[in-house]
Amino acid sequence: MNKPAKNCIFSAALAFLALMPMSLSAQSTEAANWPSRPITLVIPYPPGGTSDVVGRQLGQRLREELGQNFIIENKVGAATAIGATAVARAPKDGYTLLLSAGTTFTVIPHLNDKLQYRLEDFEPISTVCTVPFAFVVKKDFPAKTMAEFIGYGKANPNKINNATNGQGSMVHLLGELISSGLDIKMTQVHYKGAAPATMDMLAGIVDSNVEALTSAVPNVSTGRYRALAVLSADRQPLMPTVPTFKELGFPSVVGETWYGVFAPVGTPKYVVDRLSVALRKITSSASFEEGMRKIGNESKTSTPAELREITLQQSKVWADMIKRLNIKSE
Questions:
Q1: What is the DSSP letter of 243?
Q2: What is the pTM of this model?
Q3: What is the tens place of the pLDDT at every residue in 18-34?
């Protein structure tokens, strides 16, 4: 190599080394200043529902913790796919986050092969809460206990009309989980959302339903219908006298959904780390636990790695059921 060429290489190396401290300094400044403006928390559900309540409580706590406003944006449509896709394509700067139920990653991808997002497009940050479910029957249903319900189901195959929130919904999958776990045949009646399903439960048009505790507790408490069991691993404080399927001898009938926070993949590590610390502090606080308990949820804390693992495990469970039962989206 001639001398001029060596000099050029040497000069380029010096220039690169000279720029490194500046680059590291700029990154340190960005890390120290984040967040320097409001953060958008995208919720892929309509305003007013459980997800919206969770998101607004969380946004307020994050504002207190990080010192910046959190703007709640309800970006609805395509079974959460519109909101999730928007966040996946958002700038990777920590100013656009997704708060969604696990079904966005554990169920929807197995029902729609044309999605424009994947779990790999996101950085999992933390779980926020779980949503327990109860299995309820109309108030004049002949079975008063789970043992009587099973006996009725075996004697009357496909005669039990079980309401769902829609074909391929989490409530539909949980209904199928109960049917297979109890070894009885129920007819799944699909509605367009939880509200119409609940209305027909109250009217006695359908026999049973899997309901989030948020909806079930008021109606069970006032005797408008009855809860035979809860699908969580442990009894629920809001329904302390209602047994779990597990303690009734059906350990496979355990299911719940959860809400978690995700950022676009490529979001700086300092953002993910700071959000992770803030969310763990919030979700483990007594005040947030109480806020979630009041709406029938349970606060849940996790690391980014734990959230990724939970998502992958549940994705496999629901993928297997969807394939086995040949469940299609509406």
A1: P
A2: 0.85
A3: 665 644 455 566 677 89
